[in-house]
Specification:
This protein has 252 residues and is mainly α. 54% of the residues lie in helices and 0% in strands. It folds into two domains: 80 residues, Helix-hairpin-Helix base-excision DNA repair enzymes (C-terminal) (Endonuclease Iii, domain 2, Orthogonal Bundle), CATH 1.10.1670; 102 residues, Hypothetical protein, domain 2 (Endonuclease III, domain 1, Orthogonal Bundle).
């Protein structure tokens, strides 16, 4: 008997405990695998036309909320709007643009004075430096004129793809899609243009939105996200596209 017992494999007390069945249980419990989220149905072309037709009927000529007087002040306002609200930027730039609405006037004002005008805006020191630097570059490389290509706009200090898209659309009438936090949320929440990052959402919106709506599409989506499809408590009850929206948690 001693020889037979010695040949049995050693089993630790903890393993014996884990193998033991609980009362009323014939085998050890196993954790259930989490269910995969249900894949949302893509929008049909007809639904997309219906949604943007409603946006157009409700607001035929939507306007951006950043105040500006020319392409240069629009460019500066968009650069200043990073991580800031349009209302906050407008409050700071009204007085600034009254005396500095060209690159040369901005340079004559100087970085310290620009800081004083925009000090209520987040990251104002870095932004003031960028405003002066982009003004210098506009004068040195573009004759003081805001360029009309994406690559040239993105080469300016403080300007990125979103800035270029806004300027190309609002100043020069290009069919571009500027994706901010509101557009990103609306694209994903409604499943109109799901994407893991802003570029994916932008490219998908450009792909699915018919050309007839592209001039104003980014304004409609921004305004929809800002005033209706809110981050925390979306106002589904007044949403004009609530019957088309794919969000599983919508309240209507």
């Amino acid at each position: 008997m001693a020889k037979i017992i010695s040949k049995l494999p050693a089993t630790s007390p903890s393993k014996i405990s884990s193998l033991a069945a609980k009362p009323g249980q014939t085998k050890p419990a196993t954790a259930k695998k989490p269910s995969k989220p249900k894949k949302l149905k893509p929008w049909t072309p007809a639904e997309i036309v219906a949604a943007f037709s409603r946006f157009r009927d409700a607001n035929p000529e939507p306007k951006g909320e950043l105040e500006h007087v020319n392409p240069y002040t629009l460019l500066v306002a968009v650069v200043l709007s990073a991580q800031a609200t349009d209302a906050g930027v407008n409050k700071a730039t009204r007085a600034l643009f009254a005396i500095a609405d060209t690159p040369r006037k901005m340079l004559d004002l100087g970085e310290e004075e620009v800081r004083n005008y925009i000090k209520t805006i987040g990251l104002y020191r870095t932004k003031a430096k960028n405003v002066i630097a982009l003004s210098e570059k506009l004068i040195a490389e573009f004759g003081g004129v805001v360029p009309r290509t994406r690559a040239e706009l993105e080469s300016l200090p403080g300007a990125g793809r979103k800035t270029a898209n806004v300027v190309l659309n609002m100043a020069f009438g290009e069919h571009t899609m500027a994706v901010d936090t509101h557009v990103f949320r609306v694209g994903n929440r409604t499943n109109l243009a799901p994407g893991k990052n802003v570029l994916e959402v932008e490219l998908e919106l450009m792909r699915v939105i018919p050309d007839e709506f592209m001039m104003h599409a980014h304004h409609w989506l921004i305004l929809h996200g800002r005033y209706t499809c809110l981050a925390r408590r979306p106002r589904c009850e007044v949403c004009i596209i609530n019957d088309l929206c794919r969000w599983p948690e919508k309240t209507v």
